[in-house]
Amino acid sequence: MTFFVVSFAVSVGRGSGLCGAREGTLTVKSDPHQPPDGALPAAITLAVLYDRLAGRLLGAARTLGCPAVEAEDIVHDLFVSLARSGTPLEGVVDIEAYAFTGLRHAVARRRQALGLERVAIDRIARQREAEGRLVTPAAQPVDFADQRIERALARLPPAQREVVALKIDGGLSFAQIAVVTGVSINTAAGRYRYALEKLRVLLVVQSSDHSEVAR
User: Fold this and answer.
1) Residue ranges making up the domain that contains 156
2) Of 87, 110, 133, which residue constitutes the final position of a domain?
3) Both ends of the chain: CA-CA distance in Å?
4) Which of 29, 53, 63, 99 has the most CB atoms within 10 Å of its CB?
5) How far apart are CA 127 and CA 3, in angstroms?
6) pTM of the predicted protein model
7) What are the C-alpha distances in Å from 64 to residues 37, 110, 135, 183, 207?
8) How far apart are CA 18 and CA 123, in angstroms?
9) 135 part of a folded domain
10) Residue 69's domain is classified under what CATH number?
11) Cα–Cα distance between 89 and 83 in angstroms, integer?
12) pLDDT tens digits, residue range 3-15?
């Protein structure tokens, strides 16, 4: 099996879920065999893994609360880290669970960093407000359906929101989610059921509130 270097530039539209461009260099193994659609090859390469999972990873990052640009950065950085680490993917038992575990850790690290950043931003905002120089951003048009879903997701407990992200956006089985989150399969399934019920109730309440406001 020979090695070669692939320079990649991802510039994808709505279909893949990634926007903008990302560049980098991956060292991958050549694979003359094309896997069937929807299947990951036995001798997985980073390039193939990116093509197959990037959109799902991005969706999971968004559901976990990352804005679009941050989600794209997290997914891109995840694959760059894999490339730099030189981890032999052939030895990974469940490559999808492995990738989503990496995403989970990356999102947690980003949240920690953003928490520190927001403290500084809030401090600056309070200072500017006191000085009378606070500028209010212009109102932007919003999609109320998407806004209601995001608000409902934000009100879920973190553990339930995480399972929703991995199940719906990631497309993982409960067995895989159990591996990623370190809980039992029954616990993962239970969190998912409770999350869906809470989402249903929250969306009904928000829809009713929006109807009252519109009158």
Assistant:
1) 142-215
2) 110
3) 67
4) 99
5) 55
6) 0.52
7) 27, 11, 29, 18, 22
8) 33
9) no
10) 1.10.1740
11) 10
12) 323 333 333 333 3
